Amino acid sequence: MLFHSTFGLRPAVHQAADRLRSAGHEVWTPDLFEGRTFDTVEEGMAHKEKTGKEELLKRAVLAAAPYSERGLVYAGFSLGASIAQTLALGDDKARGLLLLHGTSDIAPGVTVDGLPVQLHVAEPDPFETDDWLTAWYLQMGRTGADVEVYRYAGAGHLYTDPDLPDYDAEAAEATWRVALGFLDTL
Does pTM top 0.85 for this prediction? Predict the structure, then answer.
């Protein structure tokens, strides 16, 4: 289950899903913004705020529900990563969590049994500061997750999206190479 960023379900998300499918994975890309896409972070964030976090989580849960019995791997880009994290930590059948460009708060008392988690994030990243990532890593460890973190020096926040100024071809290829290896182990 691959969730889009605050830009919406754009071509880069479909390209990523196709790349995963080409590697033999079944992939769903729900549209949490119901057809809306945005050209700027500010526009996307305004839409996210207007829609509301609870509504977006509800849409994500409804999208994942038909497949969750199979044991999903949750994945997402930035905002979508935070949604994927929330769902994976609440789904006892989750097989893994792939976070691209984002993390989220962790609810108190959450526990998982060795959930494989891989995070890919720019260094530095204005949305994922070093202090935040350190605290997040420690909290994820306390949940029982098995966490790997990969940082990409000099890359922009959404460096895997070839249609955005943040794009970094070298970092994107390294991310996909490592992420596909991770997915092959699940």
Answer: yes
